[in-house]
Amino acid sequence: DSAAWPTDDQFANAWMTTHAYAVLNNPKLVHILRRLNDTYLTNKHETITLGGPLSVEHLLPQGWRTHWLLPDGTKGLSLQELAAAPPADQRAAATRHRDKQLQTSGNLTILTSPLNSFLSNSAWPVKRPAILHASLLPINQELHKYDTWDETSIADRGQELLNRALIIWPRP
């Protein structure tokens, strides 16, 4: 309901679990991520003017099965394998969990379109140094603290961004 302001708990639950693109379009996500980026800036930072549009990047890529193993070191199941998997299949559960996590706010960032296209479905050991080298945005420079990128990292970053979002958009 757009007339009701969510409680902090409702907002937090949606932030940490909702498929971001199910409720927001790309320009709105870019706006939210830019506002979050601004929270990292202090009066000690230089003012940076962005010369072009930014696009949303999934840090754990939507095509993660190519270069990203599950936490137990196995490959994620394809959609066909998921459909055929028995309910108690642990690999199927891990694959579904990862598919859900990759669409949450903790897994999203903003990059220039050329950098986003260059990185595409790259593995974290390729993606992380490229972002740290090419992006001056503080929201991306914070990625230095994540040696690995997995469901735990997504949840941790999601919580960090949530804490900032609650400051930007407090409940009246």
Spatial order of strands in the largest sheet: 1-2
Main sheet specs: 2 strands, antiparallel
Given the C-alpha coordinates, what overall shape results?
globular
Radius of gyration: 17 Å
- Mean pLDDT across the residues is 92
- Please report the total strand number as a whole number: 2
Short structural summary:
This protein is mostly helical.
Architecture overview:
This protein has 172 residues and is mainly alpha-helical. It has helices at residues 8-17, 20-23, 26-38, 79-84, 90-101, 113-119, 124-134, 138-141, 151-168, and strands spanning 54-58, 108-112. The protein has a two-stranded antiparallel ribbon with strand order 1-2. Helix 1 runs antiparallel to helix 9 (151-168). The longest helix is centred in the C-terminal third of the chain and has 18 residues, at 151-168. The radius of gyration is 17 Å and the shape is globular. The two termini are 16 Å apart.
